[in-house]
Amino acid sequence: GVLHEDLRLLLDTALPPKRKKVVLGVGDAKMGAAVLEELGVQCQTGGVVAELMRGIRLHFPALVRGLTAQSASKAQLGLGHSYSRAKVKFNVHRVDNMIIQSISLLDQLDKDINTFSMRVRSWYGYHFPELIKIVPENSMYCRVAKFIGNRRELSEESLEGLEEIVMDSAKAQAILEASRSSMGMDISPLDLINIESFSRRVISLSDYRKGLQEYLRSKMSQVAPSLSALIGEVVGARLISHAGSLTNLAKYPASTVQILGAEKALFRALKTRGNTPKYGLIFHSTFIGRAAAKNKGRISRYLANKCTIASRIDCFSEVPTSVFGDKLREQVEERLAFYETGEPPRKNLEVMKEAVVEANEVVAEVKRRQEKKEKKRKKREKRRLEALAAAAEELAENSVMETEENDVGAKKKKKKKKQQQPEESEAEPEPEENGVEEEEEEEPLPKKKRKVVVEPEEEEEEEKKKKKKKKKKAVAQD
């Protein structure tokens, strides 16, 4: 009934001073009453206002300057996306869709395993009909049939294996004695192979069912721990599946939760004006079975009330805990004892106060553990980043060292080349000079130059020869 401050400020600034004469169109009657009470402005509600609002939305780009039809459509699309995101749960640990699927699969597996086990019984019963009375349980019957195979091959040596399967030495001995005096017909090896193969598949299905039940238990402890602690995982999962989601179950009143699953009986009773059903899915809980016949309706009504409280706590609590479910279960136990012995139970206020104190302690502990995990995760992330940075630095240093070594090697090669070049230049002139001299010696000189070079020596020899000849002649003359 109190008008929001922002809306009051908007109306104060938008309306003219003489606002007593103004009639304001409001789509909601409660809002119109609040505006009239707070501001004294007459408000009109009804279908005309809704049509006007539709027309304004349709022609909004033409009425508002700067707003285009494309931007208006984008705004509508964004609003639709935000509304869809608000309806979707982003916490993957609290998704109830998996619970709905797993409980449906669990029910289907129960039907299929029963059907297949009956088929194994009727198939193997032609060979060993006495086994059905000794081992009535379906999955155990399939295991025993797979282990025995041909009953004529069963002996004292197989007694230990039979005891491990049936968990009873008397039953194992009875199976052995019945196999010796059985009235069943003989069976061919091919038929026996098919029976064993089918029994193996039924056993694998029953093992998978056990694993699925554990998975359902873990998911229920995460999504709806209070409801699981109160009424059990399977019944709580069936309630959530029948309601559609945990949020829908939390919205239901206790009277609806009480007969949830008995809609056909309810409508038939309403049609025939007979007695309405007292319980639906909650009949599978242990409380109603333990109550006396005259108290079944009373305890089912009380249990439905507590289931509604537990589902709302699970749906809207930030950190789900099973404390409230345990306390509510204690209340149901006390109410059962009250019906039987007359001992007055505790009041709901006292129990809820204790539950709130314990829940706060549990939530504080959970938050502390979450903080520790977050700190450890941050430390691991920091170490990982440091290791990556160190590895990157090492790679950079190695690359720098390699480039430096390459540069140094290149410089050394250049120096060696430079040193080799002068040595070669120093070593090369001698053969060049020798070669030039040899070439010069080998080349024939011109005649004039050769005469100039040779004439002095020949003249001296000729002069000496001439002198000798003159001396000889002079001596001969004498």
From TrEMBL:
Nop domain location: 223-341
Record has Transcription regulation as a keyword: no
UniProt keyword annotation of Transmembrane present: no
GO molecular function list: snoRNA binding
Any one GO biological process: ribosome biogenesis
Major location category of this protein: nucleus
Biased composition (Basic residues): 465-478
Any one Gene Ontology cellular component term annotated for this protein: small-subunit processome
Pfam families, alphabetized: Nop (PF01798)
Family: Belongs to the NOP5/NOP56 family.
Entry-linked InterPro entries: Nop56/Nop58, Nop_C, Nop_dom, Nop_dom_sf, NOSIC
Cellular compartments annotated: Nucleus, Nucleolus
Chain positions covered by the region annotation Disordered: 396-478
Subunit field text: Part of a large pre-ribosomal ribonucleoprotein (RNP) complex, that consists of at least 62 ribosomal proteins, 45 nonribosomal proteins and both pre-rRNA and mature rRNA species. Within this complex directly interacts with TCOF1 in an RNA-independent manner. Core component of box C/D small nucleolar ribonucleoprotein (snoRNP) particles; the core proteins SNU13, NOP56, NOP58 and FBL or FBLL1 assemble stepwise onto the snoRNA. Interacts with NOP1 and NOP58. Interacts with NUFIP1, RUVBL1 and RUVBL2; RUVBL1:RUVBL2 seem to bridge the association of NOP56 with NUFIP1.
Upper classification of the organism: Eukaryota, Metazoa, Chordata, Craniata, Vertebrata
Function field: Involved in the early to middle stages of 60S ribosomal subunit biogenesis. Required for the biogenesis of box C/D snoRNAs such U3, U8 and U14 snoRNAs. Part of the small subunit (SSU) processome, first precursor of the small eukaryotic ribosomal subunit. During the assembly of the SSU processome in the nucleolus, many ribosome biogenesis factors, an RNA chaperone and ribosomal proteins associate with the nascent pre-rRNA and work in concert to generate RNA folding, modifications, rearrangements and cleavage as well as targeted degradation of pre-ribosomal RNA by the RNA exosome.
Entry protein name: Nucleolar protein 56
Compositionally biased intervals (Acidic residues): 423-443
Key words, A-Z: Nucleus, Ribosome biogenesis
